[in-house]
Amino acid sequence: MPMTPFYTHFPELAFNEMRSLAVKGKADLPDGEYGFLELYCDEPGCDCRRVIIDVISPATQDKIWATINYGWEDVAFYEEWMGSPEDAVDCKGPSLDPFNPQTEYSPALLGLFALMLNDETYVERLKRHYELFKEAVRDKHRPQWRPSGPRRRLRRVK
Questions:
Q1: Are 70 and 51 within 8 A, CB to CB?
Q2: How far apart are CA 47 and CA 156, in angstroms?
Q3: Residues 68, 97: contact at Cβ < 8 Å?
Q4: Full residue range of the structural domain in which residue 134 is found
Q5: Number of H helices and number of E strands within the chain?
Q6: Do residues 69 and 110 touch, judged by C-beta distance below 8 A?
Q7: Are 97 and 64 in contact (CB under 8 A)?
Q8: pLDDT over 80 (residue 105)
Q9: 153 falls within a domain
Q10: pTM for the full model?
């Protein structure tokens, strides 16, 4: 499933509501600011109810410090969605994505992200962003109505 940044459909909202943290004095993470950039599935028929978070920093521009998966539904939802009990466990909750960039600091950033999930407002924001994004994907792929058959000329009635 292709994951696409939230800002591709909602640039202003994405940057106004992107969660960021300033870190200072942690032994397992360099001092600095870290942004949690949201990516959602761009597949029209998919309802995975997940987000990928790329942790970035303005100090290092394009570098991804961690890639985090987060699924907010229960394991039973992901088991039905995936058809596999083993894989469903990996979709529930936050985890480091095994297929995308990680650094030696990824475990510490995952820990910070897990703490941020204690803020129900943030979790609800992720769910709202997911719904907005999926609606934009549906709109983009929705067929446009076109009249069928030959075109008729309208005549002016006097």
A1: yes
A2: 50
A3: yes
A4: 3-138
A5: 5, 6
A6: no
A7: no
A8: yes
A9: no
A10: 0.85
